[in-house]
Amino acid sequence: MNYLVTGGSGFIGSHLIEKLLRNGHSVINIDNFDNFYDYQVKIKNTLESIGKNSDFEFSDKETDIPRLASLAHSDQYSLYWQDIRNKKDLENIFKNHPIDMVIHLAALAGVRPSIERPLEYEEVNVRGTMNLWELCKDFNIKKFICASSSSVYGNNEKIPFAETDNVDNPISPYAATKKSGEVIGHVYHNLYHIDIIQLRFFTVYGPRQRPDLAIHKFTKLISENQEIPFYGDGNTARDYTYIDDIIDGITKSIHYLEQHSGVYEILNLGENQVITLSEMVATIEKALGKTASKKILPMQPGDVTKTNADITKAKDLIGYKPVTNFQNGIKKFVEWFLRKRH
Question: Where do transmembrane segments lie in this chain (predicted)?
Answer without folding.
Answer: none
